[in-house]
Structure formats: structure tokens, C-alpha cells
């Protein structure tokens, strides 16, 4: 049995740019993107069988996914996996997603290598993430491990040193209300979390301390504040036991015990 043939009798433009309504045998049949309209020659007089109509609808479905993905991918740089996840969340099947991603790659809209290289370059300029932090972010974005490693070659030790030189002073200042030791620990912890090399962090802190005079008045002010809090907490104790508990509390906060002894003597 032969498929029933239908004829395109009218095509009208929708208000949405690039969208058209197609009428078959004087009845509305479907709406298509301009690219589908042209590709399948959907103009007045064209005849279509059921197989062709199904093919057009499938192509239109894929084109709609492509249009959404294109809009998403051109708003800012995206990876292939990010686009795939976006389409999956919108209910598209994997076959359609794979086709759309491939088209976007062929059109050079998606390029994971360029994405990785650009991300590394921007991270170096910003100085807020070390190489391990950049690697983690790129892994989250779905970049291939080998692509990440190739891109990270551009993030040199000198780049890390430059970034740490900028960051260390600001972080130590931010933690200035803590003991010198604890301020450095917190600074190091923050930079480790951001993916910088531990040895380079320690080196940057040491160099900063060598070039900047340590504020002993600030250290004593911090100690006085924290020791007073500890003394109030252990006020029910007396003598050796009281001093031991205060010293232990201050030791945990990173203060020099000689300074703590000096504070306790002044208190007496």
C-alpha cells in the first residue's frame, strides 16, 4: 500500500523570528525552523509522504534542541558536557543530544580544548585558583583529563609564585585578629583549598614575613583578648590548674607560651 501524498498549500511566518507554520492540503500540519523549511523545500506545491513528514518532524525536533543549545553555548563559553547536561535536563534523548553536540563542535561553537586553555589563562590572571583548583573546576565542567593536563602546562611555577605574592599579604591581614601562628595556618589552609602548592605557599608566607615587620603590638592585643576570654571561662579554677587550662587554651590558638606566661604574671 502506497503512502498517502500530501501537498504544501501554504506557509506562513510566525511572530517568532525564523519560525514558520506549514499547511498540508489547506490544513495546519506543523511548525518548523527556517533551516528545516529550506532544507526540505517546504514551499507551496511540494508533495510529501508520511515517511518524509516523519523525517521533517524528527529534524525539527533536533533543530529545536540545537537552537536551545546554541543560545546556551553562546551566552558564555560552555563545554560539551555542560551543553549535554542542559539538554538532558530539558528532556531531550541522548541520541538527539549527541547529534546536537556534534553539530556544535563541527560549527566550532563548542571546543573543549579552547575552553580549557581560556579557563587556565583567566585563572592565572585572576590569581584566585592554583593549578589543582583549576584542574578540579575543569573536571567539574566535564573536560577530558588529557585536555586538562595539556592546558595546565601554561600554568607555571612562576605564575603560582606571582599569584601567591599577591594573595598572602591580604589573607594574613584578614586573619590578623588571630595569633601569628594561627593566622598563617588559616592563610595556608585557604590557599591549599584553592589549589596552590603547599611548598610554594609556605615559601610565600616566609618571604612576606621577612619583608614585612611583624606587628608585636597586634599580637599582644590578640593574646590579651583571647586570654581574657579563656580566663573567664576557667574562672572557677585556681592556682596551677587555672594557669594550666588557660595556657592550654592559648597554645591551641597558636600563641607563644612565653607570652602567655607574661600575661599571666601581669594578671597576678
From TrEMBL:
It comes from the Bacteria. Keywords: Cytoplasm. It holds the Pfam family RecX_HTH2. It comes from Weissella thailandensis. Transmembrane segments: none annotated. Belongs to the RecX family. Residues 111-152 form the RecX second three-helical domain. Modulates RecA activity. It is found in: Cytoplasm. This is Regulatory protein RecX. Residues 65-104 form the RecX first three-helical domain. Its main location: cytoplasm. InterPro entries: RecX_HTH_1st, RecX_HTH_2nd, Regulatory_RecX, WH-like_DNA-bd_sf.
Amino acid at each position: 500500500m502506497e503512502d498517502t501524498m500530501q501537498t504544501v498549500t501554504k506557509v506562513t511566518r510566525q511572530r517568532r523570528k525564523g519560525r514558520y507554520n506549514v499547511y498540508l492540503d489547506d490544513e495546519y500540519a506543523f511548525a518548523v525552523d527556517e533551516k528545516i523549511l529550506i532544507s526540505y523545500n517546504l514551499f507551496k506545491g511540494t508533495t510529501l509522504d508520511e515517511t518524509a513528514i516523519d523525517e521533517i518532524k524528527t529534524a525539527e525536533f533536533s533543530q529545536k534542541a540545537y537552537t536551545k543549545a546554541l543560545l546556551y553555548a553562546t551566552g558564555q563559553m560552555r563545554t560539551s558536557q555542560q551543553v549535554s547536561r542542559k539538554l538532558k535536563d530539558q528532556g531531550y534523548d541522548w541520541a538527539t543530544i549527541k547529534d546536537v553536540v556534534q553539530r556544535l563542535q563541527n560549527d566550532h561553537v563548542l571546543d573543549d580544548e579552547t575552553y580549557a586553555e581560556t579557563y587556565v589563562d583567566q585563572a592565572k590572571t585572576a590569581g584566585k585558583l592554583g593549578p589543582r583548583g583549576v584542574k578540579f573546576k575543569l573536571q567539574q565542567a566535564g573536560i577530558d583529563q588529557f585536555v586538562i593536563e595539556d592546558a595546565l602546562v601554561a600554568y607555571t611555577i612562576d605564575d603560582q609564585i606571582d599569584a601567591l605574592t599577591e594573595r598572602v599579604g591580604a589573607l594574613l591581614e584578614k586573619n590578623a585578629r588571630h595569633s601569628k601562628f594561627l593566622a598563617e595556618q588559616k592563610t595556608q589552609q585557604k590557599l591549599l583549598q584553592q589549589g596552590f602548592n603547599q611548598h610554594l605557599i609556605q615559601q610565600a608566607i616566609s618571604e612576606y614575613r621577612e619583608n614585612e615587620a611583624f606587628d608585636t603590638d597586634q599580637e599582644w592585643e590578640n593574646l590579651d583578648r583571647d586570654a581574657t576570654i579563656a580566663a573567664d571561662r576557667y574562672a572557677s579554677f585556681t592556682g596551677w590548674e587555672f594557669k594550666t587550662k588557660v595556657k592550654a587554651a592559648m597554645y591551641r590558638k597558636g600563641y607563644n607560651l612565653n607570652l602567655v606566661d607574661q600575661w599571666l604574671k601581669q594578671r597576678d
